[in-house]
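COURSE: Structural Biology Practicum
ASSIGNMENT: Worksheet 4, Part C
STUDENT ID: 0417
INSTRUCTIONS: Below are two proteins. For each, the amino acid sequence is given first, followed by its structure token string. Answer the questions at the end about the second protein only.

PROTEIN I
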Amino acid sequence: LLCGLADHFVPQAELPAFLAALASEAPSAVLPRHVRDAPPGVLEHHRAWIDHCYAADTVEEIVERLRACDAPAAGEAAATILGRSPTALKVTLAALRRARELGPLERVLEQEYRVSCAALSSPDLVEGIRAQVIDKDRAPRWKPGTLAEVTDADVARYFAPTGDEGLSLAASDSSQEVPW
């Protein structure tokens, strides 16, 4: 609810009765009987520093803001981020920022599919699996190895048309074409 990913909260214990009621009644009649106030979430107490730090335009700036923040969780987040693939971090931030402009969910899912397919050919995917699953040394050697070394062209490759899009959730109306 806090993140805008849900509209209502139904306690887990009430889900069987809620689902049974939905089988025979309209949602507008069922919701008032089952919806409750959501319990406070962990993120709610950290909202101010999260919003400030993650509003930055670049991954480097996000990490800088996290490190400068007094909240212990912010420092932990910075350390976690810096342990991840620099390319994947920049691609993820670009995908999130682009998703805002894509409009309907179908366009966002198409973008996610494209980015995921591009990631399958990334050397960092294989290296991450090697470091975590095969050798279990937890010491990936990313290429490029730092955020500063990841170029705009490296990121753009994940969003480039492939010639065979493979997934289209768009309506058949040509005015609904995906703008890549």
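PROTEIN II
(use this one for the questions)
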Amino acid sequence: MTSQTDVRRPAGDPLLTVTFLYFRDLPRAMAFYETVLGVELAIDQGWSKIYRLGGTAHVGLVDETRGSHRAADPKPVQLCMRVADVDAWHAWAASCGVAALTAPKDSPSLGIRAFVFDDPEGYQIEIQSVLG
């Protein structure tokens, strides 16, 4: 018999990581993530669409009528993407007419320059780059 102290975490990193967000209108969310964020569908599970953000990071868009949770307001989740050129991304987001778009701001205490906007159902997306 194996004791609890003999059990070790399996070796290796996860093959992918997914943060799931729950939507009332999945097709609208898919169009936004594909068009504005420019991410590609990695795994199509029907009522759950998993998009690769970069590396092993993924975001899953889930139809709330089928998922483990329901869409709710407010959205206490922020999706953050670090990019090479935050100002170019801001120009792109502005050209897309995204909701709640802020101006890029420097945060010396965090060492980043960032701005935020909302997806179609109110999840906040932060785009940031390293200062300097």
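ANSWER KEY EXCERPT:
Q1: The chain has a mean pLDDT of 95.
Q2: Residues 12-66 form a domain with the 2,3-Dihydroxybiphenyl 1,2-Dioxygenase; domain 1 fold (CATH 3.10.180.10).
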